[in-house]
Design brief:
single chain; 228 residues; mainly alpha; 10 helices
């Protein structure tokens, strides 16, 4: 089943989906990492988090390049590459909100990272609602990004990760204002250019081409004979 047409995406979903853009999430994460890295005991958390996000971004980009450059995907699952928005949301929001919880009680800490995964799920749904991705693509993004954030949370300790109140306040303002005012993201265009450069193609493979060929193939297969 193809993604929902963007014509059906309400302004709400278009606003929510912007919360998963790398240009919005990465600066917020890097500011927190910069502050934490000032303390030696918090550096393992910073290192694990940044390594996880970098690896998840590499895997996500590789799947997009593979499809746009060489047509490597799955028509049966309507899969053309991992959703970057879903991946970044799942990789960044849980640790981000965990850190925002500060040194409060374990219940607050738990609520922080659970809320992070909830936000990531909402962003993943928005990608389907605005017609950008299929369910399989956002599910893959949640899985890859979720593994990255879970790895960081595994080594996190709140006494090592405490941040001053002004820092999460600034992050909250950033995440509130930028989705409505930031320029359109150019990451898709950059990945497209990379895929074309590596593959030598002049035009990228498209979802429509993949699904069209799949439907023609399905129609060409003769129906199975009934069992006697």
């Amino acid at each position: 089943m193809p993604p929902v047409s963007s014509a059906f995406g309400s302004p709400f979903w278009h606003l929510v989906t912007r919360l998963g853009e790398a240009q919005i999430l990465l600066p917020a994460a890097l500011v927190l990492c910069w502050w934490l890295a000032r303390r030696a005991e918090a550096r393992p958390l910073v290192q694990r988090w940044l390594q996880g996000v970098a690896l998840a971004a590499l895997v996500t980009t590789a799947t997009k390049v593979a499809f746009m450059g060489w047509g490597i995907g799955s028509a049966a699952f309507n899969f053309t590459g991992i959703s970057g928005h879903a991946m970044f949301a799942a990789a960044i929001y849980p640790p981000l909100l965990y850190l925002v919880a500060g040194t409060r009680s374990p219940d607050w800490q738990r609520a922080g990272w659970l809320a992070g995964y909830g936000v990531a799920l909402l962003i993943a749904v928005s990608r389907v609602m605005v017609g950008a991705h299929s369910v399989s693509e956002v599910a893959a993004g949640l899985l890859v990004g979720g593994m990255a954030s879970a790895s960081a949370l595994w080594v996190a300790r709140m006494r090592e990760a405490a941040v001053p109140l002004w820092l999460p306040a600034c992050v909250a303002v950033w995440l509130t204002l930028t989705p409505a005012h930031a320029p359109a993201s150019t990451t898709h265009d950059m990945v497209t250019r990379l895929a074309l450069s590596l593959s030598g193609r002049h035009q990228p493979h498209t979802r429509w081409e993949m699904l069209h060929a799949y439907r023609l193939q399905q129609r060409a297969v003769p129906p199975a004979s009934p069992a006697l």
